[in-house]
Amino acid sequence: MMLSAILAGLSLTTTLAWAHTSSLLQRQSTGTISHSMNVTNCPGYTLGSLAENEYGLTAQLSLAGTPCNAFGTDIMDLTIEVTYQSQTTLHVKIYDTANQQFTIPELVIERPPTPTESFTGSSDLVFNYDPSPFAFWITRRSDPEAMPIFDTRITSLPSTPIPPFNTSDPRTAFDGFPLVFEDQYLQVASALPYGTNIYGLGEVIASSGFRRDIGTDGGVGTIQTLWARDVGDPIDQNMYGSHPIYLEHRFNETTNTSSSSGVLLLSSAGSDIVLQTPDNSKVSLIEYRMIGGILDFYFFSGPTDMEVIAQYGATIGYPMWQPAWGFGFHLCRWGYVNISEDIANVAAMRAANIPLEVQWNDIDLYHAFRGFTTDPVRFPGEELQQFIEQLTTNHQHYIPIVDAGIGATLNATDVYYPFSDGVTMDTFIKNPDGSLYLGQVWPGYSAFPDWFAENTQAWWTEALTNWTELGVNFSGIWLDMNEASSFCSYSCGTGANFSALKPFSVIGAVATGYPECYNETLWGPSGNMTINGTSTNSCPSETMETLKKRGIGAGGEPSVNLTSPPYAIHNGYGAVSTNTLATNATHYGGYVELDVHNMFGMMEEMTTHLALQTIFQGKRPFLISRSTFPSSGKWTGHWLGDNYSKWQYMYLSIQGVLQFQIYQIPMVGADTCGFNDNTDEELCNRWMQLAAFTPFYRNHNTYGALPQEPYRWDSVANASRIAIAARYSMLPYWYTLFANASTNGLPPVRALFYEFPIEPELFNVDRQWLIGSDILVTPVLTPGATTVDGIFPGRGTVVWRDWWTHAVVDANPDGNTTLSAPISHINVHIRDSSILLLHQEPAYTIYETREGPYSLLVSLNKAGTALGNAYVDDGESYPPGTNRILNFSASNGELDIESTGEYPIPQKVETVTILGVQQPTGVTLNGDTIEGWTYDGANEELIISNLSIELNAAESKLCWE
Length: 961
Prior knowledge:
It is a single chain. The protein has 961 residues and is an alpha+beta fold. It folds into three domains: 8-13 and 39-316, Immunoglobulin-like, CATH 2.60.40; 324-539 and 562-733, Glycosidases (TIM Barrel); 742-960, Golgi alpha-mannosidase II (Immunoglobulin-like, Sandwich). The protein has 14 helices and 51 strands. The strands form eleven sheets. A nine-stranded parallel sheet has the order 30-29-28-25-21-20-19-32-31. Helix 10 (681-691) packs parallel to helix 11 (714-729). This is Glycoside hydrolase family 31 protein.
């Protein structure tokens, strides 16, 4: 959450025009750009002292010539370690032999252990190298003739320079991109197949879509900056999280085959990652430019997209187990200003019969905006406690916000234990001179937790525990402002007059924006609030606006500089300390903020998750957080930040959900109906439907905007009831997908090409998605539409059936199919060959839904077969305890159910629906005749009712003939 006006006044944005210049540029005091040394003139390294071992090799790298000291000081001696981690994962680590450069500690991200067997001769990935000048490339043992999946031997590029290289260079071919390893600048590049498909490298919402722009002839397609930043969801700029992992999907038109691989550069350094394609070249390039750290690469061989994502998860940690109630519908807003509004809101949702699982509170809850407090007037402890107890009685839940900044006490009489205890226990970040670092957030001058400090876990756990004792008996926690966000730059509170600074006031802030094509007559506002100066928006011909990219910039400092690194990454705010912690701030253990900035959110998530394990003994924590980093998924879910009530942003939310499946943070979703500005009835109607088919489902909006709870409009209420009922019916399917994510790293939400990898028309589809392998979602994403175009993968080989009617889709095998989509309807389709375990009677809460009976939906393929499975447990135990695995298979007129495990399932399967079947003459269950069945010839649909199939039985058999 942020106040755009406040941050706009505090931020610095610089735009640089593109120019054919050196890849090392200097930003002069006048703001102009001048040439500097070309990095291609740096000497590179020579390999020596190579020693092979059972698991790989170790060698020394020595600077091969005169140091170029481009953006710091060249490091003379490096060490390279190559480890064949498994059959599918290769680890290449290049670091300074003296170990002076920052490396992510094992206590922060646990690495895979040393292999217990040798994979040097069997791994599908092979490490190759040239000793002088040193370069390496990674090939597949299974396809040695294919272009390497990573190749730093870039030595023969066309004569036309690649922006941003020097156009005055007279050579007809570049010497390539030598390895540059300095104390404040690292650079390495790899060749990629021309126009290949790259996904990941975020967090970002990209104008090019889910598939990253790799450029065309002579052009830079993407400059992705990794520097955590509190900003309201800009396009093509760095945002809250940093994920230096990409998935590459290669398609061979000649052989009609595909293969996928992945590359992780495990570094927390501020970085630019550049994707570009040289002029007249047959290759594309990826180039890493880092302002510190080491080169710590992991390569994943796939060869499928799903396997690449799973291999990444095995390296950095699989996602946390989600409690079943977390899949319910969540409701929040910044502006529930007292407990009475919470109570009224919950009652209104119940009266409208719109299921509400979790009620949230934003910073309105706090006293003077201080975390771990409640306002004694607006949220008195006894009333808040009674409210939460009533939610619990009704099997509902409560989640409050926790901001990262801890307000500093103003004087000796000011009592605020989270701050005073933190000072006593030495848990806060410091200035270089050892004094307390103070920034500025909602409560005023604020300190920031040092997640590296020895006492921080105990202090944070105590703060959360004390909060529950004050009546805030939360079920989960919402972590915000953890980039970390500060409303001023550098240590602005050090030595300041505390009495002169009061907490920020947001009273009177009014949102004035509306969605594109807003028509007050058709889709009026939800209330009678007067919006001064508001006008309706005309519908633009092109609503997708892109932000201008900055040029490749660099500072001019000759040596290490913690506050203004010599190479200026493309941080959207400009200076790296803008609106966040100063990069020279210090942490326990001798770390500095410049090195660890990108991990702040992840370390808070880990600390909070461990605290909740202590508070909720034996139960799974539930967390949603904003800033993320590799391994965050072990500790938290994520919402997509401060989006806008625009149709454009509803579309962009799909891109975000797909990205975070790659990042192993599958519990993800957007602020439904939009956060900033005002939504309207049509947009909220469509968005409530769309978000019901994403993992994390929360409606949330900003202070001063018109209310957007789904009961505010009759059509939105109706759409919400329909969509939530479908979501709750699918809960066993969602739950099984997330169990697979937590045990095997498989993504619950999938891009279409994951399942159909040799259909190039799917490679940039990001207006549709698959839930697992079996559910296809095609939402309306434009105002005024009553139809929607969608592609049905399989090119006619797959039978797709409508979720709502079970009718077979007459799909165009060669392109889009136009589908009817009246208001309050979202197109959802079932893939053939699938068997889904469903809740037969979706109820008001997840608890009540899980208490009801099951049903089975069988969608047969043309051969009359289908498969499915389900994971069932109690939905809350930590770590996951007893469970039951159900396997379903159908063929030759027979449905077999196999059940293994110790978890007892009291609910029975009462209905089985089979699609794609000819009318039978009879039905039996375990040899006994079943009378209660009906058949619909138009849909080839057999419905068998009044069953009582015992899911604890080792095997059950349902037959039709």
